[in-house]
Amino acid sequence: MTTSLPVTTALLYLNGVSVVFDGFRALNNLSLAIGRAEMRAIIGPNGAGKTTMMDVITGKTRPSEGDAIFAGRHDLTRLDEASIAQLGIGRKFQTPTVFEMHTVEDNIRLSLKADRRTLPTLFARKTAAERERIDALLERVRLKDQRRRPASELSHGQKQWLEIGMLLAQEPQLLLVDEPAAGMTDQETADTADLLREIAETRAVVVVEHDMTFVRDLGVKVTCLHEGSVLAEGPLDQVSADERVVEVYLGR
Ligand SMILES: Nc1ncnc2c1ncn2[C@@H]1O[C@H](COP(=O)(O)OP(=O)(O)OP(=O)(O)O)[C@@H](O)[C@H]1O
Predict the structure, then answer these.
(1) ipTM, 2 decimals?
(2) pTM for the predicted model, two decimal places
């Protein structure tokens, strides 16, 4: 935390962020603001800087210039990955990473944020509360009927939802999701859009996605990146009608 951070009411504010790899600008003066219960879809051609942007937000990559301000007071560019996760930023990579040999329910249980305020003497009550939270999370990610199955038996789409449930168990304020619809059936894709919309009622979600049908299902503001900067931003219809977006991305 410094005294010189720009003032912002956004949950996440990237301000003039640049990332340079061997002289190549993967991000070039990128600025972007995400609200507290906003879902944003990030689109753009290969190499536009989408992954690098996520890497900056999660502390995996340090920008050479710019600020990444979380909740108005934390400069993410000064924190390591563990501290950023602790602040409440969760990231879901494209490939699901669940504990295959454990049951669905145990995967969620293992991910629950420990409530340090609970005294050990309240153990029984804590267990009941824990059970309720697991039930709610399983319900949310549409896996209640699968709870006793080993995760290895789930479909690809169900594994993605399980991992989303595991991230939600950590109660993130901001969830970053990388191409969740890749490899999903049409039904799973539509269900995933519903799921993310529900999640974004209470927290911010940033989704990187190439599948335009899925982006349309999300029905949220879209940011198109190109050469490390924002090329266009707004409703999908407006962004997809933008000649520059058609030229570099949609028309290909
Ligand atoms: N560690 C690195 N070293 C050098 N160049 C890198 C590194 N990471 C990314 N780049 C380059 O930075 C640019 C942006 O890459 P990035 O992965 O952020 O794009 P992207 O929009 O996520 O693309 P895709 O849609 O293909 O995932 C690319 O040209 C990439 O080759």
Answers:
(1) 0.95
(2) 0.92
**Checking phi first, is residue 73 left (phi over 0); if not, alpha (psi -120 to 50) or beta?**
alpha
Overall average pLDDT of the 151-155 stretch: 96
Domain boundaries, the chain: 1-88+174-251, 96-171
Dihedral angle over CA of 64, 20, 62, 206, nearest 10: 110
Q: Do residues 220 and 235 lie in contact, with contact meaning Cβ atoms separated by under 8 Å?
A: no
Ligand 1-lining residues (CB < 6 angstroms): 21, 24, 26, 44, 46-52
Q: Which CATH superfamily is domain 1-88+174-251 in?
A: P-loop containing nucleotide triphosphate hydrolases (3.40.50.300)
The pick from 25, 28, 50, 208 for probing ligand 1's pocket by mutation, whose C-beta has the most ligand atoms within 8 angstroms, reads: 50
64: pLDDT strictly greater than 90: yes
Distance 53 CA to ligand 1 centre (A): 10
